[in-house]
Amino acid sequence: MIGTVSGPSPLNRSMILNRKFFLILFLIIFFSEKDLFGQDLFDFDESLSSVIKQSTASNIGVADINNDGINDLVVSGFDDQNEGGLFLDIYNVTTEGAIDTFQLDIVSSLFGYIREDYFSYYIGGNGGLDLGDFDNDGLVDILLHGAENLFLSKNLGSSVSTNNYLPSYVRESLVNSSAQWGDINLDGNLDIFWAGIKVYQNKPYITNKLLLNIGDDFEFETMVMPDLHNGAVAWSDIDLDGDLDLLISGESVNTRSGSTRLYKNDPLGRLAEDTNQEIMALKATAICFSDLDQDSDPDLVLSGWDPIEQNLKTVVYVNEPTGTFRLADQQINFGTVFGTIEAIDVNLDGWKDLAISGGTEHTIVEDSYYDLTNIQTTSQGDTLSADTVWYYEYRDSVSALGGKIYLNEASNTISFNESQTFNGTRTISFSDINQDNIPDLVCSGTTEIGERDSAFVAVYINTIEGTNSEPDPPEVLESFAISNRAIFNWGSGSDNVDPDQSLQYNLKIGTSSGASDLLSSGTSFNSPNIGPRLIREFTNIPWGTYYWSVQTVDASGIVSSWSQENELFIPRIVNSTQSLPGYSFGVSRWSDINDDDLLDISISGNLFSGSSLTQIFMNQDGLLEPSAYSGSIKNTYGGHISFADYTNDGKLDISLSGFHTSDWNDTYPATFFYKLTDNGYAWDGQAGLQYYAAGYEAGYLGGYNNHDWGDYDNDGDLDLAIGGVSYYGQIILGIYNNHGGILSLDTTQTNLVPGYPMQTKWSDINNDGHVDLFTSSGQFIQSYLNDGNGIMLQSEDHFIALGIVAGGVSIADFNSDGYDDFVLAGQRPDNGSLITHIYKNNNGDGFILHQELQGASYGGLDWGDYDNDGDLDFIGSGTTTVINSSDTLSFPVSNVYQQNSAGNFVADTSLYMLDSVGFSSIQWGDYDNDGDLDLLMNGELANKDLITKVYENLESVNNANVGPSRPVMLLDSVSVDTVRLSWNNSVDLENPLGAGKTPTAGIRYQLQMGGDQNYNLYANTHSIISGKYGTGTMGTLAKNNRLIKSIPEGRYQWRVRAMDYGLGVSAWSDWDYFYIDQTAPVVETIQANYGVSGQIILVVNFAEEFEMDNDTPAADPYVYATHPDMDDINEDGVSDTLLAVKQSYSADVWTGLLTLPERYVGKAIKIHVSNATDMRGNTMVSASFFKTPEKIISQAGGTVISSDGNVSVLFPQNAVSEDISVSISLLNTSDTLDSNAISNYYTITPSEIQLNKPTILRIAVPSQFADLTGNNYNPYIGHINISTGAISPLGGSIISVNNKPYIQSQLSELGVYGAFRSDSTINVDSLDIEKIICQPRIFSPAGSVFEFPHTNILFDLTETDNVTARIFNLSGKIKRTLKPEQKLGPGNNIIVWDGKDADGSVVPSGLYIVTLESSSSMLKTTVGVLNR
């Protein structure tokens, strides 16, 4: 922080009379001493000085505060001894040269604070002031800063306000600060740059800020700045390019540091550091830019403390061409800190002299203080011990002030001679106090720092002999506008003393005569708002009439009268600076091709150079430049260009139609399509629309607007309507349906009537949500209404018996009633007259002629709200005719028609810059993104010159279009493959001038719909409806809902945004989501959790891509079970079912409880699931699944069934040594099944388990392989070696379970098995034909003591044979004879006994004898039956 100095105690405030006496006595003695050595240039004036309060000021500003034409004095600073702290006083100067008080103590209510031990406390403070007219009312306002304040006082005319006109959100509590007004962006509003320290929550922060004045508010401009304070800032146009550059000098965080940084204003409004300059680094700096060598550019003087040499220094720099500074050959041997530098011609020689003032004795002192840590105290609080920590800081110290006048030696080399010294002076200013047109001097300071009564503000009168007449104002004034710039320039003024190159200028510009609301005439003395240049450029100046005049300022700061006022009218639409080629019979179109939110253009036509191509110009930050995107796009002329994403990839494709010339001799109708790729536009053949004629691709020629894109079948993508004449002269009108980017003729459209030339436009004419087709030809105007299914029907109500050739058409709802109207222009073939007709849509029931305007042909039409007033206007161009007494004259015309309050259209005759073009195309579009519609035009001028031009709209300068509100409340209603999307209507927002809202019925909407990226990160979000739109209304809709049909199954996201008449769009809505589901749910898995008492918890998992209907009881799954082998569980002759009771149903999981009755045999169940329905109403196909307990209990045995019920394995008791989990799964293999396979392959795991007993494998087979009657093959079960594919036959017996045929055999190991057939006798290894066994050895046919309700009689055969099994009780009585109906084949065979006798009754518990008889043997074994 700034250091402190010691000084004598101030005198008692009550001694004011003595104070003034001593001060005046000192000044008189000082003046007398100087007179001993010769007359000084400036004489002290006691009378004038006595009017001013004697204080120490940091700045004295000079400007005409009270607007009486005479400059007044504004004195400010910090003087706690004489002013009570921060002060701001104004003194007015009269026409007689007297000084009066105007307004005192203006900021007395502000709390200004500087620590008393800081040196600035005694020398006027640590801030300053700057004068400027911030609100362009012609009155000079005051910016005050320092002592923890930043205060803007508005000049009210009769007084200045004591309120702060800076918004609270931009104010900072500044100390060690410098601030200066400057119009950085040439908009006529003064901006502010400051550098200093911001005190926030009692902590210091370096702050360097640029605050932009945006007319009715302020906003910070973000840029990188050097973080300097304790110095100065200054604006000047150092490189004479018309904009202000910035110099900053001061210290950084280190008190011993110094830095000077120069920032060039390039591009306009953006400061970039010029690191090539070597300007001395100083701190506590004063800066002055002024032309010292009369070469019309500003030179530079700085004064401050040099941290390298550690002394005070003033350095003078010469401005070489283009703003490069070099040290002047001669320097000034006098430096100051915390002071001021003024440059003004004080001796009337026409050369700027210098006044340098400030601190003349300066040191940086080291202060130290300590803090105690680790303090040990007694219980009474007495200190026993402590550690002492010392801190050091460096601060500035000023012990003397002073100022000097240096006279310019009037040399181009820049050199000065010292003229006069002012001891004790911190600041010097100049003003013509005595009204003799010669600058006098006002200074302030203190002769004894810290001594109250030594403070002074003194007035010195200039004693130079001679006369300085007021300069003359310029006489020649010129002005013009181009693009968003207005240029004002003038000839030189003149002066009796100063050469022309020493003169500077003030410029005032207003919107009424004498006003200055664009550029204020309120400037401070000797600080003209233009400088030496004879030109001033403005950017973004509003359109309208301006009144302006210029004032000359001489080197002494004396001003001329204002020049004669000149007038400039700037139309709303002006020429841009774009340079584009002209085409004959050309067409041009806007579109944002590369997705950078800037409109690019495509131009096609005839260059009369043989083969020519379509050109694309990309918008590079406002500059349209040729682009490689053009690739090899062929040209067409006399036709049409459209940008449309017909491939639904989110990129704008191009379609062109018209005449095509491939070389000088080959011209034919053509239609071309190009798809946008990452490498530019690529040819897209579209065979359905192009054919080869005489070796060339041909198409249709219909003139301007002969094709258009729209979604007539409501499937989301853009279809094509095109009409005209083909290569062979066939007149055509066709609709081409879009299928995935491939266009094919819709042959169902049998009602279309072709014509030539043909104009086509898609539009929802009757507002029913289905796109209709508007056509205009040389014979009639006919609209075709969409029947809702995509069939176009002729409408008698929409037939107009008016033929148009060489015409154009544009469709829009100009009266905001929700129905599209149209404007049509061209030539009537029946009588040759030219027309421009506006037709109004009669609520969808037909069109009514609304207005007739000047006719034109061979031109274009386009609707747009170019004046941002909330209604649609339109532009028309082309060739018109005037018939006089002797001839018919043809000439081009371009008319912008403005809609008035009555809904009629009147030509805007103020647009004098707009070229008249025939054979033309036109389109509105906001290419510079400033909120208004610019114009793209190409065509032929009256002199036959060909042009393509962009015209910029200036409406947005003060009335930019504000886009509509973002759509909300998105809803979707899905039915099968159709969705109805809807949303709340958007509301257009008011423009800045309070008008310009597009009515709600005029709002149009753009949609985007595609794959849901929440489920697929790479999904195409444009796949159904592309969100990439060309400029204009193509593809948009006027309703707040839309029906989309034929949507493939899948998940989708969609959003919508609104568009107003000015083509301003809202932000996109949030994404909304829906899905199309036409697939019924299926059961994915079933889990059966077996409990006690026959209870089984079933968990059914459904495979459903979308959502199950869990809420509707009628949509609940119906789940029941049956026995896999026996439908009649209780043997009552009726098939039994076991209903599972629902426990829960959530998402895609259903749980239920199944209870097996006591008489249920075994634990295997067959589960049946049906009726499950999803949220789209798709109901599942009934399905059945087989379940058994997950584990085979070793002692009890058990059965395992595959989920499809086709395979089961029975494990008898103790077949395995431990409890195991066995699974049967279908073998997924890419290998082809063996040609003899009659079933799939199944894997039974775990294959490594050791079996103690044979298990029984059963595999379902097709019925044709179960009946062996008359067949010469043998079915069998085989074991498959997965590695080799080898099949080992096991044999097998055919049985029927619930009327389903199976083959079964015994297994000695688990693995991969299948059923096969053999045309010959199979060979089975390891047969034991002398053995018969029953598995299980004990079974329970009448109850669930054991799981098994039957036993399997296992035996082997070596060849096919008839066998018979008999069952005897122990008494030898036969109970049952089992004889297979067919012979059994070789290998393992099985006969099943269900435990019943010949009468069908279950045999009693006991031991039974089983015999097996074959043709060659009889075998015997036993089996046990154990019932409840």
Describe this structure in words.
The chain is an all-beta fold. 2% of the residues lie in helices and 46% in strands. The chain has 3 helices and 97 strands. The strands form 26 sheets. A 5-stranded antiparallel beta sheet has the order 79-80-84-88-87, with no helix packed on it. The model is unreliable at 1-37 and 692-696 (pLDDT under 50).
Question: Care to count the β-strands?
Answer: 97
Strand order of the largest sheet: 79-80-84-88-87
Q: Could you estimate the helical fraction of the residues in percent? A: under 10%
Rg over alpha carbons? 50 Å
Structural class: mainly beta
Q: Give the biggest sheet.
A: 5 strands, antiparallel
Secondary-structure map with pairings?
Blueprint: H1 16-35, E1 42-44, H2 46-51, E2 59-63, E3 72-79, E4 85-93, E5 99-103, E6 128-132, E7 141-145, E8 150-153, E9 174-182, E10 191-200, E11 203-213, E12 218-221, E13 229-236, E14 245-251, E15 259-265, E16 271-273, E17 283-290, E18 299-306, E19 311-320, E20 324-327, E21 337-344, E22 353-377, E23 383-408, E24 416-423, E25 425-431, E26 440-446, E27 455-462, E28 477-482, E29 485-490, E30 504-510, E31 535-539, E32 544-553, E33 566-570, E34 573-575, E35 584-591, E36 600-606, E37 615-620, E38 623-626, E39 637-644, E40 653-663, E41 666-677, E42 680-683, E43 691-693, E44 696-698, E45 707-710, E46 719-725, E47 731-739, E48 742-745, E49 758-763, E50 772-777, E51 781-786, E52 792-800, E53 805-812, E54 821-827, E55 834-841, E56 847-853, E57 861-864, E58 873-883, E59 888-899, E60 905-907, E61 918-925, E62 934-940, E63 946-953, H3 956-959, E64 971-975, E65 978-982, E66 1004-1011, E67 1041-1044, E68 1050-1059, E69 1072-1076, E70 1082-1090, E71 1095-1103, E72 1118-1122, E73 1138-1139, E74 1141-1146, E75 1149-1155, E76 1165-1170, E77 1183-1187, ...
Parallel strand pairs: 91-97
Antiparallel strand pairs: 1-27, 2-3, 3-4, 4-5, 6-7, 7-8, 9-10, 10-11, 11-12, 13-14, 14-15, 15-16, 17-18, 18-19, 19-20, 21-22, 22-23, 23-24, 25-26, 26-27, 28-29, 29-31, 30-32, 32-33, 34-63, 35-36, 36-37, 37-38, 39-40, 40-41, 41-42, 43-44, 45-46, 46-47, 47-48, 49-50, 50-51, 51-52, 53-54, 54-55, ...
